[in-house]
Every structure is written in C-alpha cells, then in structure tokens.
Design goal:
CATH superfamily: EAL domain
Strand content: 15-25%
Mean pLDDT: 89
CATH architecture: Alpha-Beta Barrel
Number of domains: 1
CATH topology: TIM Barrel
Structural class: alpha/beta
Order of helices and strands: EEEHHEEHEHEHHEHEH
Radius of gyration: 18 Å
Shape: globular
Number of strands: 9
CATH class: Alpha Beta
Helix content: 25-40%
Length: 232
C-alpha cells in the first residue's frame, strides 16, 4: 500500500518572559490506511519514491510548500539538510527563501571543507545554521570554528537521562561560541524547570507541542490573534 508523505512541524520556543515560538522544525511522517508512520518507516520504503535522494527532495518541497506559511515575524523554519544535498544543485532552490530558514546539519555528518564553504555561502543569502544532535556525534572544534553555527541543538538523550549539569555546561559552551543552545526532548514541567534553571531559554519538546500538521498550528495562531483583539 503506497504511503502518503505528510509534513509535520514542531515548535521551538523561547521561554524568556513567556512562551514564544521562534520557529518550527519541519519533519516528515507517512500516512497509511490506519495511522501515521514515523520517518524511519518512510525511509525504509524510500525505493517506492525513487530512492532516498529523490525522497529527500520530495520531502523538502512538501515542507517548504506547507511550512513557510506558518512563519510570523522573525520566525524561521528549521529544515534538516541531508549531507548529500550540500553539493546537489537541485537544493539551490532554497536560496530564494534563505532568510526564512535555519539549516540543520546533524553532528553525525562528516562535513568536508567544501561542505562548510557551501553552508557559509548559504548563510550569506540570509540562512542561519544549526548543528543538530549536538553532544553525541563527531563535531570537532575546527568545524565549530569554521562553521560558527547560530544554534546548537542538544541531543534529547541528556534530558531523558536527567543530566541537567551537562545542559548547564553546554549552555555556557554555546555562549562562548556565540551560539544559542536549543534543548530538545523536554516532555514534562519538571524537565522544563530543570532546563530553565540551567539558564536555557530555547526549548523543543512534547511539552510545548508535538509534531503536527500545518493547519493545526495555523489554527492556534488565529486563536491567539483573536484573543489579543478582544477587549479585556
């Protein structure tokens, strides 16, 4: 049975002085007859879409088509960039909306100097850069120095294991590199308090919103705008 690709979006929030989304991470799910399938299941069936590289391009186009409309003000869409895409000319299409994007590159990716040059050129078009899965991959100081990422996204395993002292130390490390730390995997109020006590202001996790289709978040925005327009 064919899978329908379904882009979903998870908010990333700034918790300083309230809870304000700074953007949404674009993710993918597959819709079957009975349920949404996770990204892993989708990529396991990549051949149905013409192979993993073709699938990546289809996912990119769907995420852009539905995700850009979510952005308000200075919000950005956080878009996962597969390493093969860095030198794929078809991904140049992103340059036209670069100032609305944060390009996420996994810490597991082995970036060459040419890859880093491509990312820095993309930044000149207005994009920001995030290193995803930070803390469990193979980022080295040379790569940090060359890339100067705007965001470090701390892998969710640190919150899952309650290692909030490492969260605090990583926040200080990020600040030394003039990057903003985003902590992933926050699911409970207790975790959120511990992360905020560690000095972190940017958080992503189920507590602040599960990955949902764009219409869900558009509905939330309309309700928020309506409540602000009503007299007290």
């Amino acid at each position: 049975m064919p899978i329908e690709l379904v882009p979903v979006f998870q908010p990333i929030v700034d918790v300083a002085g309230g809870i304000k989304p700074i953007g949404y991470e674009a993710l993918i799910r597959g819709r079957g007859i009975l349920r949404l399938k996770g990204a892993r299941e989708v990529f396991e069936r990549a051949n149905e879409f013409g192979g993993s590289k073709v699938l990546d391009r289809q996912i990119r186009d769907l995420e852009i088509e539905t995700g850009i409309s979510l952005l308000i003000g200075n919000q950005r869409m956080f878009l996962n960039m597969p390493s093969h895409a860095l030198l794929d000319p078809s991904w140049q299409v992103l340059r036209s909306i670069a100032n609305e994007l944060v390009i996420e590159v996994s810490e597991h990716a082995r970036l060459t100097d040419v890859d880093i040059e491509w990312l820095l050129e993309f930044r000149q078009q207005g994009a920001l850069i995030a290193i995803d899965d930070f803390g469990v991959g193979q980022t080295n100081l040379r790569m940090l120095s060359l890339l100067s990422p705007d965001f470090l996204k701390l892998d969710l395993s640190f919150v899952r294991h309650g290692d909030f002292e490492t969260v605090r130390k990583t926040r200080r490390f990020a600040e030394d590199w003039e990057a903003k730390l985003i902590v992933e995997g926050v699911e409970t109020g207790r975790e959120a308090i511990a992360v905020m006590d560690a000095g972190v202001r940017y958080i992503q996790g189920f507590l602040y919103g599960r990955p949902r289709e764009a219409y869900h978040w558009l509905g939330h925005q309309r309700l928020a705008a309506l409540s602000q327009a009503l007299p007290p």
